Amino acid sequence: MNQVLNDGLATLGLSLDEQQQQRLLAYVGLLEKWNKTYSLTAIREPARMVPHHLLDSLAPLAHLDAPAGTRLLDVGSGFGTPGIPMAIARPDWQWVLLDSNHKKTTFLRQAILELQLPNVTVVSERVESYRPEAPFNVITSRAFAELGEFIKLTRHLLADGGYWAALKGVYPYEEIAQLPKDVAATDVITLKVPGVDAERCLVMIKEQGSL
């Protein structure tokens, strides 16, 4: 697994230190352990979790324009992707992982504790009723909802000048065409994930007033 992770990070152009890499692999270990009881992911082999969960989550990293101290929200975080791998890779970002499934947030809280990630908070709540103390600069999701619904449910959580970054599979032409009139997809970036033989893209969306 170490070699698969090393090679994948090199292909993505990401430079993570030994401690960060060990934390990523420890996350896979936790996922495998909890998966036996909680059925968090359909992928059960740790060797496949590395490309499909770690590298898949980290592939968008170079495209997120966010300085240190940025507040990011991972909506429908599930078992922690992309939030946990990104939080390990960028400890200078402040993350909130949001999911309404208590089984999943129980795992997330334990993972944050064991991986020692002080830059991550877990919230177990429905997104439409979530009212944080401060809005978020970046809101992301991985297979959470179609884009229009994603925007509708999270609009109240976005800071002025912030943006949405949605991880998708195939290029979502129809979803982009049906976006609300006051937002726009500013970029759709094709992602090549090492070890994942499937289409991936990152859809960047902003409110029209902040373009």
Automatic annotation (TrEMBL):
Its main location: cytoplasm. It catalyses: guanosine(527) in 16S rRNA + S-adenosyl-L-methionine = N(7)-methylguanosine(527) in 16S rRNA + S-adenosyl-L-homocysteine. It is found in: Cytoplasm. Its EC number is 2.1.1.170. Gene3D superfamilies: Vaccinia Virus protein VP39 (3.40.50.150). S-adenosyl-L-methionine binds at residues 76, 127-128, 142. GO terms for cellular component: cytosol. It is an enzyme of class 2 (transferase). InterPro entries: rRNA_ssu_MeTfrase_G, SAM-dependent_MTases_sf. Keywords: Cytoplasm, Methyltransferase, rRNA processing, S-adenosyl-L-methionine, Transferase. GO terms for molecular function: rRNA (guanine-N7-)-methyltransferase activity. CDD domains: AdoMet_MTases. The keyword Cytoplasm applies. Specifically methylates the N7 position of guanine in position 527 of 16S rRNA. This is Ribosomal RNA small subunit methyltransferase G. The lineage of its organism: Bacteria, Pseudomonadati, Pseudomonadota, Betaproteobacteria, Neisseriales.
